[in-house]
Task: structure prediction
Amino acid sequence: MVSNENGSFQLLTPVTEVVAGHAITVKFRANVVDDVYLLLNNATGSTLVPPNVEGDTLSYTFPSSFKNKAGICSWNLVYNGLSHEEGQLNILPNNSYPVLETYLGPRSISAGNRDFSMLVIAPTDSYDNPLLDSTRIDYSFQFKEAIQNEFVYTKNLIGWERIFSPKESGQILVAASYDNVNSKEFVTKVYPSIPTDFRIIFERNHKFADGNQQIAFITDIIKDEFGNVITDGTMVTFNIESSENMILQTVGTTLNGIAKGKILHPNKEQRWNVTAYVIGAAQSNTLVVDFEKAIKSFDIEISKDSTTVFVKNMKSFMQQLVPDGIPITMIISKPNGELIETKTTTTRFGKGSFSLTKDFLIKGSYEIRIESAGITKTENLEIE
Amino acid sequence: MRLNRTIYQTLLIISFLALNALIIFGISAVWSYLNSGADRSKMLHLPEKLTASYLPKVQWNLENNEGRPIEEQTLNEIERDYVKSWQVKSIALETNNRYGISDYFTDSARVKLYDLIELNQSQNITIKTTSIKHNPKLEFYSADGKLAVLTDHNVEHYQETYLQDRLLHSQNSTNTYQILLLLEDGFWRVRHMVQMDAGKKKNIANTIQNLDESLLSKVKGVNYYPKDHAWDMFGSNFKDSIIYKDFKKIKDLGLNSIRIFVPYESFGKAEVDSVKLGQLSTTLDIAQKFNLKVIVTLFDFYGDYGIQDWTLTHRHAEQIVEALKNHEALLGWDLKNEPDLDFESRGKSNVLAWLRNTLEEIKEWDSEHPITIGWSNAKAAQNLSEEVDYVSFHYYLDPDNFTEVYSLLKTAVPDKPIVLQEYGYSSYSGFWNAYMGSERKQSSYFKKIQEGIESQGIPSIFWTLYDFDLVPNSVVGRLPWRKSKQKYFGLLDKNGNPKEVVKVIVDK
Result:
């Protein structure tokens, strides 16, 4: 019995534990009945409850926001600006009609028993209250033939477990259940682990450096350390180092573990060293590819008025006209070696030509050097 | 006729000139209008810098996190959103409005809040609440970084409950909660919140047990502002050379203490201006050179006291207290100057609640130095006398009644040291007091008060060192009779020359 000059109150319902959803009424015997409120506090917030007065008994019925919310609910009997009685109720979750909230992530992991998905289960009762700690949750996961049944106890509102990847790629199905309530099916994809080193071969139509055909580099089936074929679409970079120390690159993406990269033949005799990489993960052997000369020779002809230089008779390995687009370079210099100009053109119908303007070349003798397909020819030119 | 003609001529010329003047004025008005308002910095519509509006103290415990190790960035994001969830909830409960709830609570969690808001709204119940301190422990962080569980231990709250705008109840409480947060559309939203433990009232920090009363009892000092920058001594006005000279004068007058003021807003509110804080610390350094003790008065010119503002004022005080609490020159803290003057405009209970809670917070950061509240009169000084370490009051009334007023206070608060933190008399003699004031009157006022102080052994601090040229409107308002009076409370005149009253102080 708490009493003071203004009011005295006696708690008639010394309840400390209730189950969520059940009606809660707190009663007091009091000598004042006006303006006595019950202040309720829980994790959601606070409210004031007016009394139901019967004689000298005040009864306060908890509104649903408070009777349905599990956890501690504290109350103060407030009268005249003061708290005269106080107490707290431990409201327990209601175990009927539970709901399972299940989270699985990450949803894609890599094979090999190192990576994992995390299964988190937050079971709640029908009033959306988390169930008490140490609630047993069963869960199962299936991979290929194997189905495993496990369980976990909740702690800190949730139950959780790591689901490690097997060595094989594929997908794991996960489901949880509690008290005949089942979650839906969750899928996590097990992708192959990182690729291991592999080998490459090449395919080409002929061995000539004609600047026209394509050579293809092909990997064997690239696998991870557990023998899983790596994921389709993995990019493979083919790195080519030519005998002239040029770096060329082509790329391909894998399909069923095989990647193919294509590139044009060179237009002059060359040796290529080719290595393929899955960047940051794996590399191949180094392949040596030789290209032979396709164009053996050509002729230079200067027009009578010395205004045009023709490059003629460019023939490929079967005496066919060289393909269009073979680069031809003409270097004009003075006999003492002083460079005047460098001009470039490309073949068309097996020929190429350069025009020399009179305005540009003043009277005198010059040396003309033509370079194409790795062949160099020199000719003298007299301008009068 | 001739006269008439002259009159007409004069009128014509004058009206011509007047018309011209009007036209020129008109053109210039248009010209200046077209040249105003075109502030180039406004052209880009740059976003305003957001300042935090809710800053409870958050102390994380990251030990034994069972899931994935947390990244600092994610932890900051969780803290930001979690603290915001408390703020939107308090605002919602205060206004019974759903604003902002959906950003910080998941679908199923917000339904519970909406139900409560609806219930409170229907009964006209409003809850004003703030959390003061959080001690979250990270229990679990999921591998995919989308789910986290916290246990927020001993969350300190203050809450006022209103029914039809009538305050029914106010209380401090300390509760523990478990919270499940989900990362949804870039927000960490509260999914579950369960109260684990409640009702433990915060232990009201005890007053300092072994308070060195001998130090306090010897206090004989001055409320200090520099001559040319009264009520505005920090910032670009701050000159350590002036402070040095002034403190030397104070020492030469035979005084041993000063009381200075820290303005809340110009010190940067919750984000204390480090330059000004440095200047405050320099002021204490200089005081230390002259062996002067300093009472630092916080929250000068602060007048909000609103519950939603509490955490900001706490962060303000925390930064100042933490920066100065180990300073040798520090004698103690004065929480607020004359808060009783805000009782009427802000509500006595609001002011007292803020004072009590802020005082408790400061005690937590500094348990060494005594703390007081600078009440404007002896009657008001009985408020919160249990909570303060020493009681202080101001006295500007009839000196003959001083001893009586003091004894009344002493009887009401028998077991706390009492300090007279302000007293003084204006030597103003001018139009507004009919040339009735004089330095002699000031001197005799001091003499009488001094007699009382001597006989009762009261530690005292008078107002003030200098007469001031400028008194800001924010101090005593615009009224000239108040302002003029305020300018002549000094021991030294505007040129720094001693007034008659100096003899009273120095002799003693």
In short: The two ends of chain A are 132 Å apart (CA to CA).
